[in-house]
Design goal:
This protein is globular. The protein contains 7 helices and 6 strands, in the order βαβαβαβααβαβα. By secondary structure, it is α/β, with parallel strands linked by helices. The chain has a single domain (2-215), classed as 3-Layer(aba) Sandwich (Rossmann fold). 29% of the residues lie in helices and 14% in strands. GO terms for molecular function: hydrolase activity.
């Protein structure tokens, strides 16, 4: 299984939790890809160039891929899945401390306001949103809205801020859990019939703070 780690704005694969997480995942037998993308202050945010770099460093996506994006990098993943030709849906997408939207016009096209939710949620078999309640850069409400928009599983933590420190066990635990849990509703799997050999009547239940410059 391949894990694709996408860094955020003004970051790189050598910053924040990325080196630790990549090292831990490789030690557990995962293939890890850590693309380096032009996401820096003072540089024009050229989405086609960024996506071309993703294509060059990541290539085609498969059903065994888990994509993990931090902050602004989460939406590079979303845009990549929109742009790249796919014959299989990745196993999961994990969005860490990701903003729901931003005010800057030049960045708006990265975000979900310009993506079709009904299409986006089918680009991967599952979505996870990991967000800390004490994130002062991207408030927790962004994670809640994002999870609702994508029908994602929200993994909330009491602490962690914007996930800019060296180690976060919750990230490793979440990825391992995804990788080791069979996906129940993959194409072709038959769902169990709860009513088989049972009377219908027996089954009826009774009624009853400071923001980063790209966010401003």
């Amino acid at each position: 299984m391949r894990i694709i780690l996408v860094h955020g704005f003004n970051a790189s694969p050598e910053m924040n939790f990325h080196p630790w997480l990549a090292r831990e995942l490789r030690a557990k037998g995962f293939e890890v890809v850590t693309p380096t993308l032009p996401l820096k202050s003072g540089e024009e945010l050229d989405l086609p160039v960024i996506l071309d770099e993703m294509k060059r460093q990541v290539g085609f996506l498969t059903a065994d891929d888990i994509l993990v994006g931090h902050s602004l990098g989460a939406f590079i993943i979303m845009q990549y899945m929109e742009a790249v030709e796919m014959t299989e849906s990745p196993r999961a997408v994990v969005l860490i401390a990701a903003p729901y939207k931003v005010a800057k016009p030049e960045l708006r096209r990265l975000f979900l306001v310009d993506l079709d939710a009904d299409v986006a949620i089918w680009k991967a078999r599952e979505f996870y949103v990991i967000h800390a309640k004490d994130d002062t850069l991207v408030p927790f409400e962004h994670g809640q809205k994002l999870a609702a928009y994508l029908k994602a599983k929200l993994v909330e933590t009491e602490t962690g801020g914007h996930f800019m420190d060296a180690e976060y066990p919750v990230l490793l635990e979440t990825i391992e859990r995804i990788a080791t849990t069979p996906f129940e509703y993959a194409p072709g799997i038959s769902l169990p019939d709860d009513y088989e050999n049972k009377a219908w009547a027996d089954r009826i239940a009774p009624s009853s703070e400071h923001k980063p410059d790209w966010m401003t």
